[in-house]
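In this supplementary section we document a worked example of the pipeline. Step one takes a protein sequence of length 129 as its only input; no multiple sequence alignment statistics are reported here. Step two produces a three-dimensional model, which step three serialises into structure tokens for compact storage. The input and output of this example are shown verbatim.
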Amino acid sequence: MKALIIGSLIPVFLTGCMTTQIEEPNQSLDIPAGFYRYNNNIAWKGIKGNGKDCPVKRCMQMEIITRRGCPAMLYAKISIIDNKAKRIIGYSSDSTSNVLANQKSTLTLPDTTGGLSQISSRIAEILCY
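The serialised model returned by step three reads:
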């Protein structure tokens, strides 16, 4: 799979009832097994979990690794989609700082919909500063 295009459905594992389409991970030699390439510097994977680390009832947790690091900030945002209405109904984001090259970071993106049951998500952006 080539770099993910903003707006495409992406594979993620969400705690609670948020779900989305699953694709095969990129098995390229330059990124760890199970990770998906976002761009030439960033790879990510969804983290399966039972929600115990979520600040709210449901969230998505993702692990991100960068080839060159993000000395100022690593930021990720997902769009939250109402599957029934087929439209974006919100977003969620998280960030961390001082990420070293080849260091893994965990970001937690809470469900901001108030508990709707038929929702999915897709990555809107992952930025490295």
